[in-house]
Amino acid sequence: MLINPENPGNRTHTGLARSLSGEVRKFVDEMIIPNESRLAQSGDDGSRLQSELAEEARCAGLWGLFYPLSHGGKIASLEDYLVIAEQEGRTEYSPAILGSHSALDAHMLLKFGTDEIRKNFLEPMASGEAIPSYGMTEPGHGGSFPALITTSAYLSNGHWIINGRKWFVGNTDRATFVTVLARTAAKDTALPKALSMIVVPTDSPGFKVERQITMMGRSLGQGEISFTEVEVPEHNLLGGSGSGMDLMGQRLGIGRLLRSMNWVGLAQRCFDLMGARINSERGRTARLPEKQLVRQHVVNVYQAIASARELIRVAARSVDAQRPNNVEINIAKIAASQALCLASDSAVQLYGAEGISDLTPLSGIYRVARTSRILDGTDESLISSTGRRLISFYEEHDTYHFA
């Protein structure tokens, strides 16, 4: 499994996580949230501010907390990291500023990368000199169907030659390398052995950012990229040839949990904003605390957040124990997405017209919430695959034992 924690149940380690979560919360509240409007701006000002805040996070010892311990990370257990990730997630800009957006890539490169990959990509990334991206989905193909992948790579004189196209690739506006999922075997090869992951520097001849893709009218770093006879060394292969499906599965599982942790933090932010609105002078004038439907909003959001947190914790614990449970991971992702969607929608409703304007952070959070039902697997695909797995379980067992 991807994560290999050191003493995940150690009480001192848990205490460190809680201490760091307090420091992260303070940094987010004092340094990032007050600058959200500037960070939302496209262009040099927003990018420059993001870089400045990332450097301040480094100086404060709060950058890359879930990186591998060998490369500057401080937390090795997913369950412990939950309390930190929630605080990082209270603003949509924290993952890039605090380095949590690249922690998954760091673990992938460390475990599956060659010595050359670790030296050329992991070490620069850990020092803040490199930015990763990941290319899986292709134009015209559903992201959940790897059998439809047409991007190809073949070996020639010790180099991989890559051709194809990917879209909805994160960090395309600033990435220095991309891990691309490509077909490396003949068409008649069984899918589990047909795909591989290859690390490609974005300054390679033949690599091109075709366009940036806005999400609900806003730039979130997503884009479309192409490979035309892109040539990279053979040692840029991540894992073994034909191991792409296995690596994709591991990446998706951990990625879903990491995103879910951030989404719960963002839902908590909405919950706090709801409380502030209800008890504000305007809220009391409108008698919001006395209205039963307002109370129902509050209870529903609380229940959704509390449920998602515990589901994530259970799933994270299974990963820490080296026994990842895809049912638990998928249900946790669905629950976190639903909690964020409900929290953002309820908060917008209580704020009224202000909630859908740029006068509050809620319009931006609402966009993130809506994408959460699609990123890392649509609700429909996760529900279908998880339901199938649960039904199949009862073909051989009488009782399902919850964790």
UniProtKB/TrEMBL annotation:
One of its GO terms (biological process) is fatty acid beta-oxidation using acyl-CoA dehydrogenase. InterPro entries: Acyl-CoA_dehydrogenase, Acyl-CoA_Oxase/DH_mid-dom, Acyl-CoA_Oxase/DH_mid-dom_sf, AcylCo_DH-like_C, AcylCo_DH/oxidase_C, AcylCoA_DH/ox_N, AcylCoA_DH/ox_N_sf, AcylCoA_DH/oxidase_NM_dom_sf. GO terms for cellular component: cytoplasm. Its cofactor is FAD. Residues 242-390 form the Acyl-CoA dehydrogenase/oxidase C-terminal domain. Residues 134-230 form the Acyl-CoA oxidase/dehydrogenase middle domain. Keywords: FAD, Flavoprotein, Oxidoreductase. The keyword Endoplasmic reticulum does not apply. GO terms for molecular function: acyl-CoA dehydrogenase activity; flavin adenine dinucleotide binding. Residues 19-129 form the Acyl-CoA dehydrogenase/oxidase N-terminal domain. Pfam families: Acyl-CoA_dh_1 (PF00441), Acyl-CoA_dh_M (PF02770), Acyl-CoA_dh_N (PF02771). Belongs to the acyl-CoA dehydrogenase family. This is Acyl-CoA dehydrogenase. It comes from Nitrosovibrio tenuis. The lineage of its organism: Bacteria, Pseudomonadati, Pseudomonadota, Betaproteobacteria, Nitrosomonadales.
